[in-house]
Write a structure and sequence with these properties.
Residues 24-41 have a biased composition (Pro residues). Residues 1-49 are annotated as: Disordered. This protein is an alpha/beta fold and 454 residues long. 41% of the residues lie in helices and 12% in strands. It folds into two domains: 5-170, Serine Threonine Protein Phosphatase 5, Tetratricopeptide repeat (Alpha Horseshoe), CATH 1.25.40; 186-452, no CATH class. The chain contains 16 helices and eight strands. Strands 1, 2, 3, 4, 5, 6, 7 and 8 form an eight-stranded mixed β-sheet that branches. Helix 8 packs antiparallel against helix 9 (153-170) and helix 11 crosses helix 14 (372-389).
Length: 454
């Protein structure tokens, strides 16, 4: 299994063999393989060059990419550099540590399918897919089909599916806006606590104690697929779909933050400090690596997602990436209409909590929101006022308050969200929520009101 097979999944066998040197018409894709991928072979199994490869891997693990690259180039320029076992080891180690871009750079100029076999070619193909380069992936796929190995046929059909999907997603939407795209200067902003808690951190008993060992999970802003004129749309003041792509990750990050086993961040994109970014294509491995590099510490998991809307019907897919091994562990899917949104999103929320084995932490007792859509809108709006208050987002990007926001009488978190939103809005001279529905018998809310001067 290659380092990125979990992203691609398996597919059914074709009804006819692929022509020599060409790619077949893809069959429908099947679910991702749930079996764990094997670890790379130990360095001792690869002969005298093994210690050098082990040293290079150590450099990758401490993010000294230049040091690892220097070792790899020394190996590749020696007689060992033409050995299939060496090439597959280098490509596998680069993929497992998230250094996807190194694989084409080091391996592609040297790879010969007949001499080096399919294993390295599969790693190279997957790297091109992760980097969003379907043309190069197609070229490697043609070389692998030309080997005419029946035992590879099923996997190669899966790769053909993945290439077709990548081409279809890219379609005619123009230049991709993605994290790290220099042309668009996309910066990632990380939110490490519930967005409504900023300004209230000193209230005793509000936030969980995260002093012990925890897993660290990042939730990335959703991609918004099939979005026409995404550049023009992203330049406008905040609108509903864009707010949802940011509000949902904030909600899910907040959920795990209130579990004893996890610390979390939510990552959203800004085009410099001019306006929010929208991402019209699914996140690739290279995008995830940028998130890892800018997250302020090591990550155990990253959750990416893609949202598609057509005539009021919504489709969402979330993908959970395990960073150790850089593999997709799990996917979650949901579909809804405006009438079913709260119910379907609540189901998704429950599935995620169950998968992560959510356990109550100290601090404010956590309860799912009464209305998922209202809470997502509240979080997205709170984020905008927070960033505008900090001078990161221009005030002109603020939009009128969406309706309905979370009912402040529905719970302590909703009341605190209303208070901090009103506090920031007062400094920004923007729309502020009414405070007349705040509960009067909640000690935490009373303390927050006194702290903020309401």
């Amino acid at each position: 299994m290659g380092f990125f097979d979990r992203l691609l999944g398996k597919s059914a066998k074709p009804s006819r063999p692929a022509p020599n040197g060409s790619s077949p018409t893809p069959p429908p894709a099947a679910p991702a393989d749930p079996d764990p991928e094997p670890a790379p072979a130990p360095a001792a199994d690869i002969g005298p060059v093994g210690p050098k490869l082990a040293t290079a891997l150590e450099q990758l693990e401490v993010r000294n990419t230049d040091g690892a690259k220097e070792i790899y180039e020394e190996i590749l320029n020696s007689t060992a550099g033409d050995r299939p076992d060496v090439l597959v080891r280098i490509s596998g180690d680069c993929g497992a540590t998230g250094n996807i871009a190194l694989i084409p750079e080091l391996i592609a100029p040297r790879y010969d399918a007949d001499r080096h076999g399919p294993a390295t070619g599969i790693n190279l193909l997957q790297a091109y897919l992760a980097l969003g380069d379907p043309e190069s992936a197609q070229h490697v796929l043609d070389l692998l089909f030309a080997l005419q190995k029946p035992e590879l046929e099923e996997r190669l059909w899966g790769f053909s599916n993945a290439i077709g999907e990548l081409m279809a997603n890219r379609g005619s939407r123009g230049t991709t806006a993605s994290p790290g795209n220099r042309e668009h200067h996309i910066n990632l902003v990380s939110i490490s606590k519930p967005i409504w808690s900023y300004g209230l951190e000193d209230l005793p008993g509000l936030l969980p104690n995260k002093a012990g060992a925890t897993k660290r999970v990042a939730f990335a802003q959703l991609s918004l697929l099939d979005t026409p004129d995404f550049e023009k749309r992203s330049e406008q003041p905040e609108e509903a779909l864009g707010r949802f792509t940011r509000g949902l990750p904030l909600w899910l990050a907040e959920t795990l933050y209130f579990s004893s086993q996890y610390t979390t961040i939510a990552a959203v994109g800004l085009k410099e400090q001019a306006h929010y970014a929208l991402f019209p294509n699914a996140w690739t491995g290279d995008n995830i690596r940028q998130l890892i590099d800018t997250s302020g510490g090591p990550l155990d998991y990253v959750v990416t997602g893609a949202l598609r809307e057509q005539d009021g019907d919504f489709q969402l897919q979330l993908r959970l990436w395990e960073i150790k091994g850089f593999r997709e562990r799990k996917s979650f899917e949901a579909q809804w209409t405006p009438a079913t949104a709260d119910a379907e999103l609540a189901k998704l929320h429950q599935q995620l909590r169950f998968f992560f084995e959510w356990k109550e932490a100290d601090g404010l007792p956590y309860a799912p929101p009464a209305s998922a859509t209202a809470w997502i809108d509240s979080l997205g709006t709170s984020l905008s006022t927070f960033l505008a208050d900090k001078g990161v987002l221009p005030r002109e990007q603020l939009a009128p308050l969406p309706a309905p926001l979370a009912d402040p009488a529905s719970g302590t978190a909703a009341a605190l969200s209303t208070l901090t939103l009103a506090d920031r809005a007062s400094r920004l001279n923007s729309d502020a929520p009414a405070l007349d529905a705040l509960p009067t018998d909640d000690d935490t809310v009373a303390a927050a009101r006194a702290h903020l001067g309401f």
